[in-house]
């Protein structure tokens, strides 16, 4: 051992000492980010405190948008094998009478069931297995990250400790996916903004063969004295969440009392308590999500009560939004300010989801003040308004606001599509049937009803495909979507959000000049960069 090794941290070369991206935390958000980056040729080292999957009960629901993200990460088939479609969400009063119902379709716009139930440890095993198979990814488990630093424009430094001592790894970027108690958040000087919801709940996971009275969806019990959540997770797995006056362990008699509305639990019955934990549900959002190239994702950036099943979903959306932008900067020399759009796009959406969850929480608990009964009465009345429940169920992914990567002109045709997701139908090309995203690949796409040389030039400049909606074997769904959105063509970002449109009868996108300089720069260009810039400029002058 040298003197340097004996007295302080040592560089981890050749393990290696410098990597493109270090990810702190190997939960679903961190591993999904690694897999998405790997698909774009970016190597990552993932640092995780635990050797194995963390066993405590956590997320059990996801939506069709997140199913699409898992498809992009290459684990959709494996996830389908462990997922169970759900019918939606019901609000019940204290006597378990239906106050409102938020139905979810068997297939949503993203090509999957709008709500799917799953067991998070099973999802984590699926993701970890995929990580092991991916040569661009390295998982280092059983380590404790002790520091994250970035000074100026140089590489970030991550210090961690394992059984062999302390190590330093340098990276072009660091993704802090290290949860609510994030060291990375502290390292960048971010603080919590309190969105005013904090309650202590007991969460139990049960395995049983007993007949359980369930709706095959999520039930929220809106009882200020004993609010609860219930859902069927898999064939014989169920989840209950209760707000109780204390954190004491539930004995058989207490468990029988709490679950009586759903199951008749006799002594000695087949009713295995798999996991039990107490959680404090909070509503918070970090005041800043990045410093230089150190970023916060998932619970490190935002915490939401679980009442609409969007906590993990929000974190996976973070990974999807950031990964393609970071890869574009690291691999293709895109402008550094492209990375600024991560927070500007994701933070408003995360805040929106948190507020929805808090509203649902107040609907369940009613609060403890004198206006609680009035709020519950107003909720019950509002839920009877025709179409309101269906509209509320759709409002989990609002349209992105206009910005550098969403070009919207108020008086131009097709503006209704900018900032929205492209639907994902099944398509058939050359006799092969697949989901749309599998055809499009991982980059930009020009999707058009009217192909033209100028659109091909834009596609060539971005390294994108030009796909005509004619003859896709999708029963005309994409062509109809363009017509309804008043667009002849759209430019899809790698995350399948419409970035720009060609209005009816137009020849070019609405604002090519607005995003061309963001996606291409002379900083560290690839060999083809000069051709790329020329192609885009030709497109803009047509």
Walk me through the topology:
Blueprint: H1 3-7, E1 10-11, E2 18-24, H2 28-38, E3 44-48, E4 61-63, H3 64-72, H4 76-82, E5 84-85, E6 88-92, E7 98-103, E8 115-117, H5 120-133, E9 137-141, E10 144-149, E11 156-162, E12 165-176, H6 183-187, E13 192-208, E14 218-221, E15 228-232, E16 237-242, H7 252-259, E17 271-286, E18 290-291, E19 294-296, E20 302-303, H8 311-332, H9 340-365, H10 372-382, H11 388-394, E21 426-429, E22 432-435, H12 436-440, E23 445-448, H13 453-462, E24 465-468, H14 477-484, E25 489-492, E26 498-502, H15 512-519, H16 529-541
Parallel strand pairs: 1-12, 2-3, 2-12, 3-9, 6-14, 12-19, 23-24
Antiparallel strand pairs: 4-8, 5-8, 6-7, 10-11, 11-12, 13-16, 13-17, 14-15, 15-16, 17-20, 18-19, 21-22, 23-25, 25-26
Helix pairs in contact: 2-5, 2-8, 8-9, 9-10, 13-16
Describe this structure in a few short sentences.
The chain is α/β, with parallel strands linked by helices and 542 residues long.
3D structure, described in words:
This protein is an alpha/beta fold and 542 residues long. Helix content is 31%, strand content 26%. It is built from 16 helices and 26 strands. Strands 1, 2, 3, 9, 10, 11, 12, 18 and 19 form a nine-stranded mixed β-sheet that branches. The chain has an eight-stranded mixed β-sheet with strand order 7-6-14-15-16-13-17-20. Strand 23, helix 13 and strand 24 form a beta-alpha-beta unit. Helix 2 (28-38) packs parallel to helix 5 (120-133), helix 2 packs parallel to helix 8 (311-332) and helix 13 (453-462) packs antiparallel against helix 16 (529-541). The N and C termini lie far apart (66 Å). Residues 1-16 and 522-542 have low confidence and may be disordered.
